[in-house]
Amino acid sequence: MKTIAITAAALLTGMAFAGAAQAGTSCYTGPVGRDHVNNQTVCGPTRKQQIHIDCFRGPWRETIWDHPQGSFVDDLVAFGYDYGDANGLATQICKNESLVGNPEGLRRELLKAIANDPPGPN
After folding, report:
1. Is the CA virtual torsion 93, 33, 49, 80 positive or negative?
2. Which DSSP symbol is given to 3?
């Protein structure tokens, strides 16, 4: 059994940029919130923060024992998610069997998940 830890730098305002309104800001156009129904443009300051993707891996390729370590969840909370959403997001990533042994895939999946459901009021 081992712990997998990698780091992903995430941007608070979104992953797809429609253009910067001014230096140090970015805009995201796409679905906002859990509804994913209406496209909105959201602009705000860009803040980079490291998120350590830290998953406990069980002894098998199957992910029945796999779960996020506290530092992964804590980093997502510090990024702006509430504890429940952070734990759910981290668990979803750590239990994805296609990402076992794939640190770059873990990083891409986290960035995609943040872009699809950014932190904040939803």
Report:
1. negative
2. E
Q: Which residue has the tokens 């959201």?
A: 42
C-alpha span between 18 and 49 (Å, rounded): 21
Tens-binned pLDDT, residue by residue, of the chain (122 aa): 444 555 555 544 333 333 333 445 556 566 555 555 566 666 666 668 899 999 998 888 788 889 999 999 999 999 999 999 999 999 999 999 999 889 999 999 999 999 999 987 76
**Listed residue (121, 114, 32) closest to 75, CA to CA:** 114
Nearest Cα neighbor of 44 from 60, 74, 24, 58 is 24
Q: Which two tokens stand for residue 79?
A: 């990024």
In the block, residue with structure tokens 């730098």: 9
Say if CB 50 and CB 107 are below 8 A apart. Answer: no
Residue 41 neighbours by CB under 8 Å, 6+ apart: 18, 27, 28, 29
Residue 77 CA neighbour count, 13 Å, CB half: 10
